[in-house]
Amino acid sequence: MVRGKVGSSYSDWSTTADSSRQIFTFYELSVSEVLKGELSHRTITIREFGGEKDGIGMQIPGTSQFSKDEDVVVFLSKQSDGSYQVQGMTMGKLDVQIDTNGEEYLAGAAINNSVFIPGEFPKKWTLQDVRTLIKQQQADEQAKISRNPGHAEQRPPQNPAVHTPREAAPQLQPEAQEDLSSRRRLLIGSLAVAAAFLVGFLIRWRRK
Amino acid sequence: MGRVLVILTLVTLFMWLALTNPLLQNAQAFIPSVTSTGKQLRWDLPIHLNLIGNPTNRSNLSEKSFFNAVVSSLRQWQKASGQVFSFDYWQGSDRKLYPTKVALDGVSTIFFASAAPEPIPQISPNVLGLTQVWYDNESGQIQEVDIILNDINFIFTDDPTDTSGYGSEQSTASRYRTHVFVQNVITHELGHVQGLSHSGGLQSSMLFMESPEQAYLGCDELAAALTIYSPRESQEKLGSVSGRISFQDGSPVYGAHVLAISQVRGTVLATALTDSKGKYAVRGLEPGNYYLMAEPFYAGPSALSTYFADINVKVCPGETPFNRKFLTQDDSHVLTQLSVSPNHSTTAPPLVVQCRPADETLASVPNSSILKRGIVPEIHLNPNQQQNFGIVEQLDFTEEQVFKISGVSGNLQIYVLAYSIYSPIRASLVLYDSEGLEVRLRKLDPSYTGDSGFINYDSSIEANDLPDGTYFLKISSTRLRPYQYPAGPIALDSTPYVVLLGTSTHASLSRPSLVSYFPENARCRLPDDSSPYQSPTSQPPSPSLKQSGSGIGFCSSSPSGGTSHALRSSNTYLRLANIFSWALPWLFIFGVALVRLVHKRSFALSRLRTTMGSAILKIWQECWQKLQFVYLGFLHFLYTLRHHITPHRQKLRKKAFS
């Protein structure tokens, strides 16, 4: 579980464990804090199902969407190609917001429904609440293990998505990976056309 | 003549710019799935879905139950589309004939995750089901779908009362339930198959969280299916409401959820989402009177296609969402009535939303002065004519509120909406005459109760042959719990409010005009079709190409995994169409120049064939002289620049509020 800022992104094909080719969107995440788990790099690649490539699009309604420069907390699982996948679709991404007191809190589909007391409305989950909760959970787990050393708590099985794909996911380049959109091509074309005519007009006008 | 032609050129150019502006076409009815450029995902007509199902599962759900659930859901969508959507469904357990693989392989499938040969990475423990939609990203044409149901983490049943979510009397805050009525999920996922995204409507099958009664299409889905796929003759019976929503500084609200409330039905009939210009269009409405409410799309952009990634509901100070707002007259409690007629779009007045102090959650209507002063609000009616009224009022959780209605005569019908528009109360009505005696009337309270245990706590009363005079309407409210609302507290308001819709008339009370399309109940639930369905006797379609490291399916493959022949063909047509539309103004200019030259008798058309070269040169010179190229080039530049910078404008606006 990490906090970070979303950078550039691109979509491309990749193969999953069941040998099917899927379109993924790869996002660069600059990690500012590791809330749970371990991470060896400060910049990681998040892989989410869905995207458009080679004239084909693929969507899975409910997958997480990321925008550039978003400050997010995400639940991730590592894939064998080195990228990380968001767990729980839209529930696995939380936005970091700042309230009027300057306190950072989390917002998202998962938070709004995770905790409420009947008759009242959900509390605001601050980042500090989350850090405290994680520490408490880790302490409880340690306490259980120390009480029953022979019966360490069974961890849930690893995400079955960790497989060796036939081809590794393309790595993000330092510079922006965005393809030129058709609109950008149109912009350049129109600029060129308009510039050509303006120059021609000026030349003709001067000759007059 | 020259000046006229130049003016005509410019007018034509601006019209062309306006008509081809894709942003204008994005005022979305219902909430569709869209491509990255905003094109709606939809099947090409005529639609015939060949769906292959594999019932193998860990939930002990029988093959027959699964078959019935899939067919029932498909039939609902078929009926909702006016029979434009048709299907064939095969089911079996042999993986070779009934594949359990998520891939772009030419076949559309539905199966359980446990039946897949390899674990499906798309499935997470909290995900009940998902739909993978493949489409042509130029046109938005859907090519293939795969639906996976997560029986690894959930248990699918054929009991309509089973739900993992909130929204029934059985919902509690603490119990996490893993038993889910399979048809709830199938009907929802088939909505994605139709090209719909998640909805924010409480009674919608496309609500972003699983909830009771989702097995049966809601009013919004019927309106959506009619709008997308129904025959022209059906669409000509429907109307729409369009308008714009902005903030107080005039800037547009992107991603506001707009709800159209039907006067005659007393229910939310359809919804829409505003585009980046704040514009919306609620389509698929039967003729009648409507009232509008706008709210943030509380589920957020993650519940929608990537195109809506820039939706930001929390644009107010303190990162809070803007407040729910009703379209009212002069910011009063009187709702603005909009009349919808067939094959016509009614333009609503602009709706301006506002922000609230950060310590208040989801506050909605302005504070009512009535409660504080103990005044009995009065509704004046004219006894000599049919009158409709709509008001919105803030209430207290515990106190009763009385309204005085003067000028009543004949028949009176009143709906009270609270639950279905996420007000945290159940409102009940009692009518008294001027002597304080309770009037005998027909009451529908609650307005809808479903097989699943879902209850719509709105209510209505209908009284006939009332003596002329003044009456008193008492509204009693009972606090409801968050878990009684589908999607729980995510969109629930903290402030109780009600919408009162009334009709007083000497004539018979009008009934909904399109009951054949929208059944007459608060949820528009279609009658069940339990007639037996027979799968085709032929073998189901088979995957057209085996998956390999380079191929991707359909009829052809390329080393880079490029597009199929079918997709390339459609791309070519679209590219040609795009080039033509872009070149149209230039062709027009050349045409105008040619007309001028012929008019000036600079050359004769009969000689065009032999003097093509000189004719082209003359046309070029003509355009050059009249500076038309300059105008055209500059306008093209502006048009392209505008579309290029619009997405960035959204981000700038976000920063402006942070």
Specify the structural class of chain A. Answer: alpha+beta
- N-to-C span of chain B: 55 Å
Instruction: Please name the fourth-level CATH homologous superfamily of the largest domain in chain B.
Output: Collagenase (Catalytic Domain)
Would you identify the CATH architecture of the largest domain in chain B?
Answer: 3-Layer(aba) Sandwich
Fraction of residues in H or I helices of chain B: 10-25%
| Share in β-strands of chain B | 25-35%
Q: Name the chain pair whose interface involves the most residues.
A: A-B, 74 and 90 residues
- The chain-level structural class of chain B is alpha/beta
Overall geometric form of chain A: elongated
N-C termini distance of chain A:
71 Å
The CATH class assignment of the largest domain in chain B is Alpha Beta
Structural features, described:
The complex is a heterodimer of chains A (208) and B (658). Chain A has three helices and eleven strands; from the N terminus they run E-E-E-E-E-E-E-E-E-E-H-E-H-H. Chain A has helices at residues 109-114, 127-147, 182-207; strands at residues 2-15, 21-34, 43-49, 51-53, 56-59, 71-74, 76-78, 84-86, 93-98, 104-107, 125-126. Chain A folds into two domains: 2-177, no CATH class; 181-208. Chain A has 208 residues and is α+β, with helices and mostly antiparallel strands. In chain B, the strands form six sheets. In chain B, strands 18, 19, 20, 21, 22, 25 and 26 form a seven-stranded mixed β-sheet that branches. In chain B, strands 1, 10, 11, 13, 14 and 15 form a six-stranded antiparallel β-sheet that branches. Chain B has 658 residues and is α/β, with parallel strands linked by helices. The two termini of chain B are 55 Å apart. Chain B is globular. Chain B has helices at 2-20, 63-80, 182-193, 219-229, 232-235, 369-373, 565-599, 612-625, 628-657, and strands spanning 28-29, 47-54, 85-91, 108-112, 129-136, 142-149, 155-157, 179-181, 239-246, 256-262, 267-273, 279-285, 288-296, 325-326, 338-340, 345-347, 351-352, 378-380, 387-394, 401-417, 425-432, 442-444, 448-449, 455-456, 459-479, 497-505. Chain B has four domains: 2-20 and 569-657, no CATH class; 31-225, Collagenase (Catalytic Domain) (3-Layer(aba) Sandwich), CATH 3.40.390.10; 238-362, Immunoglobulin-like (Sandwich); 364-513, Jelly Rolls (Sandwich), CATH 2.60.120.380. The interface between A and B is large, with 74 and 90 residues. Strand 5 of chain A pairs antiparallel with strand 5 of chain B, so a sheet runs across the interface.
